[in-house]
Amino acid sequence: xxxxxxxxxxxxxxxxxxxxxxxxxxxxxxxxxxxxxxxxxxxxxxxxxxxxxxxxxxxxxxxxxxxxxxxxxxxxxxxxxxxxxxxxxxxxxxxxxxxxxxxxxxxxxxxxxxxxxxxxxxxxxxxxxxxxxxxxxxxxxxxxxxxxxxxxxxxxxxxxxxxxxxxxxxxxxxxxxxxxxxxxxxxxxxxxxxxxxxxxxxxxxxxxxxxxxxxxxxxxxxxxxxxxxxxxxxxxxxxxxxxxxxxxxxxxxxxxxxxxxxxxxxxxxxxxxxxxxxxxxxxxxxxxxxxxxxxxxxxxxxxxxxxxxxxxxxxxxxxxxxxxxxxxxxxxxxxxxxxxxxxxxxxxxxxxxxxxxxxxxxxxxxxxxxxxxxxxxxxxxxxxxxxxxxxxxxxxxxxxxxxxxxxxxxxxxxxxxxxxxxxxxx
Length: 426
Known about the structure:
Radius of gyration: 21 Å
Shape: globular
Helix content: 55-70%
Mean pLDDT: 94
CATH architecture of the largest domain: Orthogonal Bundle
CATH class of the largest domain: Mainly Alpha
Structural class: alpha+beta
Strand order of the largest sheet: 3-2-4-5-6-7
CATH topology of the largest domain: 2-methylcitrate dehydratase PrpD
Number of strands: 8
Distance between the termini: 52 Å
Strand content: 5-15%
């Protein structure tokens, strides 16, 4: 693929849009980001706060620890952290610089200020508005479609910023992802000048492996990574999924190390990268090959999620686990035929995993998804595959990916609502 090709330029842009650093689960951090920005606009410490969130955000914030808050959970803690100690200019690392005094400020705000949480009336799966009030003024910030997409800023009755003119805000602000397909992704990975995105990919390696090491070393969540290695040994097939699971366990339980996210998710960023890095180390792949394999895994993950949407009842770790399998196939010399069959084999195996919010069991789902990606690769390497007509598998990798998008976006819409009702005890 030539560097002047519009597809080449689009893939560069997509990677730059998707691979960004974040500390903590991205839904509570998005609330903290909006709250920090609203506080800036208000210009003074608010007396009370209103937070309106869509039900999918409620699902993903309910059970996860907000980092740097002293093990606090929930929407109120996220908003309080953003208001009291947040730095909006750091975006998804908004509460990365908090000391003990800052944690006391968060607690004091929660104890003494009114924070009201209500469900958004929006039909969007991702929609939140934080409004802060002083004695005689108010300011609000709305984020929609994805975690950093501010669509409205108001102070009192004055609109300071708006991006609500377009019905398809996500499409309007992000590079068109409908151009993506597996064949072009592999062509791009083979031909790209990696220097254009090397810093992003190196940060992904450094950040995500650091939190994986932390997850294995210390007591985080359900310690899925340690359980896997203690039970089944340190074989690469075990280690690859154990490292990814350990990173998720640490992240879900409030570890303050940053990760490089993919498709708006730290867990997906971890799942798409850590197993590929572990395999590259195991087989002694050179650095250039590793970077190109990460391009494959990241873009295959993003490609699958494009048809599903940012938030769904479909577990995003599945898409990233399949992406990891594709990257591992690339490391071993696989190209279109091998990678395509790896993806289809993996999707045929684990596409029934649901998303019931961010919490420690995400680590176990990541392990299962990475396992499916590895199995998908090993199956085809041994002449085995699933065929069109086997369930939701259709002949052609793009057709199967389209089926998964339909399943996650349309078929699981009512499932998503029922999951949320169950989680809220309704």
